[in-house]
Amino acid sequence: MLKNLNLSNFISHHITERPESLLAPDFQKFDAELRSRAAGKSVLIIGGAGTIGASFVRAILRYPIGRLFVVDINENGLTELVRDLRSSVGLHIPKDFITYPVNFGDPVFEKIFRNEGPFEIVANFAAHKHVRSEKDHYSIEAMVDNNVLKAKKLLDLLLEFPPEHFFCVSTDKAANPVNVMGASKKLMEEVILAYSERIPISTARFANVAFSNGSLPAGFLERLMRRQPLSSPSDVRRFFVSPQESGEICLMACLMGASGDIFFPKLDPEKDMKTFSFIAEKLLAELGYEPDFCKTEEEARQKAVVFEDSDKKYPVQFFISDTSGEKQFEEFYTGNEVLDLDSFPNLGVIKNAERKTMDELEPIFKKLQRVFRKKSARKDDIVKVMKQILPGFQHIETGKSLDNKM
Fold this sequence. Notes:
Layout: H1 7-15, H2 24-29, H3 31-38, E1 42-46, H4 51-60, E2 67-71, H5 75-86, E3 96-100, H6 107-116, E4 121-124, H7 137-160, E5 165-168, H8 180-195, E6 201-204, E7 208-209, H9 216-225, E8 230-233, E9 237-241, H10 243-256, E10 261-265, H11 269-272, E11 273-275, H12 276-286, E12 290-293, H13 297-305, E13 313-319, E14 338-340, E15 347-351, H14 358-373, H15 379-389
Parallel strand pairs: 1-2, 1-4, 2-3, 4-5, 5-6, 6-10, 7-9, 8-13, 12-13
Antiparallel strand pairs: 9-11, 10-15, 14-15
Helix pairs in contact: 4-10, 7-8, 7-15, 14-15
């Protein structure tokens, strides 16, 4: 069914609707500076097996860096990353290139960092990135621990061995967050900004990465391979960038950003936002099918059981979103943030974002840790604490999780 699908072409034609990368003018403008800042450098990439991290790896390997270390907890993902890089053309893979399947919060990571450094360029992509992950107090504790507390531990390590450039990925959902994932990333932004006077740090908020690992569009491909129905919300609109663009945004922010800068892509809400149901219909059309609209999940499942390749219609079930933390639209910045829209052709930069000191943040960490230690703590207890920490956090709670959907 998928044998003739060219996914990169599909993304550029139907999702981003851009024949070349959004960042092509930016890379052309800053080619000399990027080359100078990357050449010969020792690079450490954390979370490099994920879609965005791996795209960052490919982007930085356009330049002749000196050393490359990639760590990720996904051992299979690292294996595929190496195979992909070794099978690609036009990449400057350094002789000193090694991957490690370790957690960046573990003691062995610190041992690697201390023994194999210093690293001039460090980029962190290790994060809980799905709204789906905030089911209950257990999942939220794991999310905040990974996105905030372990990020702080990494920053403390970097203070001992400051890199020339440090990048930590954020999300558009950090702007006026309505879910805990976005709130955890907003808190992460505040942590890295608190360190930005001592370490050169930048970050980026950007759109959904089309067909990234674990994303709903990637799930469409999995469902099709298993002859299962496609299911998605029909009312949630999102910005999309290609995997290549995601890595390029992060690389530009990492190497060209001033400390404390928050980058975002310049996208048009009218032209560039798409619904997931739109993508599902376009994907089916690309494969020669029409959607067979089903009213219920059960109807869709039963029709998928009897589906044949010769059929003209494929079962889909679209619905109005009703799960917790789901924002109907995306935004990259808030009304009180200062923007630089002139320095980069297709990237905007949030400048001089409000910064807390570490003295102000320490009580916040202690408050979170206290609520995590309570055996009786529930999801709403944690959300209440995060609302105190982030006054702009307006959590949308419906009592329903994405795990209740196909």
